[in-house]
Amino acid sequence: MTEATERTDAGQGIEGVLLANRDRIVRFLMVRGAGDAAEDLFQDLWMRLTDRSSGPIADPLSYAMRAANNLMLDRYRSAQRSELRDKAWGESAALPKPSAETLLISREQLLLVERAIDATGERPAAIFRRFRIDGISQRDIAGEMGVSLSTVEADLRKVYAMLADLRRQFDAG
């Protein structure tokens, strides 16, 4: 590209640079691994660069090529994350199903846990469920129940101690 052409491109803004160098940028994207998606990526690049209101760019072609490269890096990272996620989902689906005995034991343990939580008292059980299951903050629970924050913390410690004892029994038995 000659110096005169570069000045003209710069004068036209980023849209002019993209139009004048469309084939070059598409080839660049293809070489970087975009394949058949190069045209779509060029459109994404167009949208990214023309949606922004930016000041003058010293070297608009270099800027566009760098943005195209960043777009390819984003695409690569997204594909990697997708592949890892799909692999993880596939592995979890391949886990063996628990036996009927394991299911029965798990249900019995769940019933024992629920009973242990209830045995700590109505308020500690309610506080525990609001905090651990509903995800409400301790401060909000204190306000809802009309108790101090230290009371909420003490009730949670009581339930946690009961659950720790129960866990030790499960591990020993």
From TrEMBL:
The answer to keyword Transcription applying to this record is: yes
Q: Which protein are we looking at?
A: RNA polymerase subunit sigma-70
Q: Please report the stretch or stretches of sequence annotated as the RNA polymerase sigma-70 region domain.
A: 21-81
Highest rank taxon of the organism: Bacteria
This chain's source organism reads Sphingopyxis macrogoltabida
Cite the GO molecular-function annotations of the record. Answer: DNA binding; sigma factor activity
Supply the Pfam families for this chain. Answer: Sigma70_r2 (PF04542), Sigma70_r4_2 (PF08281)
Q: Which residues form the RNA polymerase sigma factor 70 region 4 type domain?
A: 121-158
Q: Which residues form the signal peptide?
A: none
* One GO BP annotation of this record: DNA-templated transcription initiation
Record keywords, A-Z: DNA-binding, Sigma factor, Transcription, Transcription regulation
**NCBIfam families attached to this UniProt entry:** sigma70-ECF
Into which family does the record put it? Belongs to the sigma-70 factor family. ECF subfamily.
